[in-house]
Specification:
four-stranded mixed beta sheet; Alpha-Beta Plaits; about 260 residues; binds FE2/S2 (inorganic) cluster; two-stranded antiparallel ribbon; about 20% helix
Length: about 260
């Protein structure tokens, strides 16, 4: 969800009919999660501050207009939240449809198959049809066949010894950029361009990860919800059957 609040003041609200008391400053998404309600999401994670860019986690709040993002909306005393209305389900399916229309559909042979949040969210929102065409390569095509070049379909960057960067699978959620800054304290990554042109870029010191300020800490790879940033060992030998999370004492940052 989103990082936990450290506030000692408590707030009581209602989510889908359940009353819950949480620390002030908690996001609606996190409060829902603590009630056992999983709101679909792509750009938020416990690791880094919420950003509110993917628009998948929309909710309805009594007395408020529109459908705010639950990851960036803090709880308030007496708030009444709905997370599963028909309107929200339709909106979320529409958002996911757009993401999937701009994503390769090679899930069966993708290194992240079975461990991909984009795949999980397509299932969670019940996406069954995509009305906008993807030609599997260098262009986005509308249904009438008119296409335009998509700048994200650039070659894979395999320069880092431990992981690869595949721009074609990037949903520009910026989790990697925020993890680099907030977890590692390095500013190796940035988002450049706008709209279909936008892409994650490894800084200004080189065109690839090896030439950038990246220190190979792996925080960006851990934060990535797709196979855009993928460990080379997983590409080579597949997903591990078991995994163990430890804290590395090497640099003292405390990342896992
Ligand atoms: Fe809230 Fe992406 S998870 S906007």
């Amino acid at each position: 969800g989103t990082p936990a609040s450290k506030s000692e003041a408590m707030v009581t609200l209602t989510i889908d009919g359940f009353k819950i008391t949480v620390p002030e400053g908690t996001s609606v998404m996190r409060a829902a999660m603590e009630t056992g309600i999983a709101i679909p999401k792509l750009c938020s994670t416990d690791m880094v501050d919420a950003f509110g860019s993917c628009r998948l986690c929309l909710v309805e709040i009594e007395g408020r207009r529109g459908t705010p993002a639950s990851c960036t909306t803090p709880v308030a005393d007496g708030m009444v939240v709905s997370t599963q209305t028909d309107q929200l389900k339709t909106l979320r399916r529409g958002v996911m449809e757009l993401y999937i229309s701009d994503h390769p559909l090679d899930c069966l042979t993708c290194a992240a198959n079975g461990d991909c949040e984009l795949q999980d969210m397509a299932g969670a929102v019940g996406l069954r049809d995509v009305r906008y065409g993807y030609d599997g390569g260098n262009h986005m095509k509308t249904r009438d066949g008119v296409g335009e070049v998509n700048a994200r379909y650039l070659p894979k960057d395999e320069s880092n010894p431990y992981f690869t960067y595949d721009p074609s699978k990037c949903i520009v959620c910026s989790r990697c950029v925020r993890a680099c800054e907030e977890v590692q304290g390095t500013f190796a990554l940035t988002i450049e361009g706008r709209g279909f042109e936008s892409r994650v870029s490894p800084g200004s010191f080189g065109d690839d990860f090896l030439g950038s300020e990246c220190v190979s800490c792996g925080a960006c790879v851990q934060a990535c919800p797709t196979a855009t940033l993928q460990e080379k060992s997983i590409i080579d030998i597949g997903q591990p059957e078991h995994s163990l999370v430890t804290t590395c004492a090497y640099c003292g940052v405390g990342c896992s």
